[in-house]
Amino acid sequence: MPNKKIKFLAAVFCIASLLFMVKTEIFAATGKNSEKIEISKSKVSLKEGEEITVNNDENADITVEVTSSSKNKGFTVSTKDSKKVKIKKTNLGFSITALKSGEARIKVMLSANKKISKTIKLSISGKKKAAFGEVVKVTGKNFNKEVLKAKGKVIVDYSAKWCGYCRLLEPIYKEAAKVRPLYKFTVVDADEEEELVEGQGIGGFPTLHLYENGKFIKEGGYMQDMTVWDLIDWIESK
User: Fold this and answer.
1) Which residues are catalytic?
2) Domain boundaries, the chain
3) Torsions phi, psi of 136, nearest 5?
4) What is the pLDDT of residues 203-234, one digit of tens each?
5) Is the CB of residue 94 less than 8 Å from the CB of residue 77?
6) Which helix (H) or strand (E) holds 6?
7) Confidence category of residue 88, pLDDT binned at 50, 70, 90
8) Residues in domain Thioredoxin (predicted)?
9) How far apart are CA 183 and CA 198, in angstroms?
10) CATH number of 136-236
11) Cis before 2? omega within 30
């Protein structure tokens, strides 16, 4: 009789344990008490100065999806590589700007439970330097660096997309940059850089400015039937 009682109690215990396990599985499957975070990309390659967005919008560079039993379904972004990347809070989420080439890690964490996280690995490459014979785009932000602080001869082409003579000059200008690669040929988009154009006193397009070792030398422009050698002669003549 005692053996039957022991067997009965053992059977009851097994059934209770099984029911508990099933209940636990169902509880987890229904999403109760479950917390997780998913990201659309775990690896990203970008260049110095490039920016990516991290938020829950489908148009973000990295989309974040949060599942949490907490009312707080937000997330935070952090990094230990602050010399290589800059994190900024935005209205939608976060933006990440690459500062320095190398490898960096970004951690995306649940606001309600920071133990729940995902890691984004960033591979950052340096900015591509302008090659010999390449026309450099100049803006108000880099004018001092690219023109006034540059050594040797620098030619600045103030050009506008709607300007017919600008379109005629463009292939000649690009060819001259290849023929004289030791000179620095630059271009300013007048439509995008109105403040710079006004500050330099540009009255028409295209306008060419010649600098040497940061000093303004002379002003020129497009001439009818102009050739590459006409442009080079203008640059090299006193």
Assistant:
1) 163, 166
2) 38-125, 136-236
3) -95, 130
4) 999 999 999 999 999 999 999 999 999 999 99
5) yes
6) helix 2-29
7) very high
8) 123-238
9) 25
10) 3.40.30.10
11) no
Closest CA to 148 of 177, 202, 186: 186
Question: Strands, E, within 127-201: which ranges?
Answer: 136-137, 153-159, 184-189
| Distance in angstroms (rounded) separating the CA atoms of residues 234 and 157 | 13
What CATH number does the domain located at 38-125 have? Answer: 2.60.40.1080
Both structure tokens of 69: 């039993």
> What is the token pair recorded at 191?
């439509």
User: Encoding tokens for residue 62?
Assistant: 């990295």
How high is the pLDDT of residue 126?
80
Tokens for 225?
A: 């039937």
Q: Which of 26, 7, 27 is nearest to 15 (CA)?
A: 7
Least confident window among 28-32, 77-81, 90-94, 176-180: 28-32
**Structural tokens at position 188:** 């300013």
pTM score: 0.50
**Residue 141, SS3 per DSSP:** coil
Q: What are the pLDDT digits (tens) for 97-155? A: 999 899 999 999 998 888 899 999 999 998 666 666 799 999 999 999 999 999 999 99
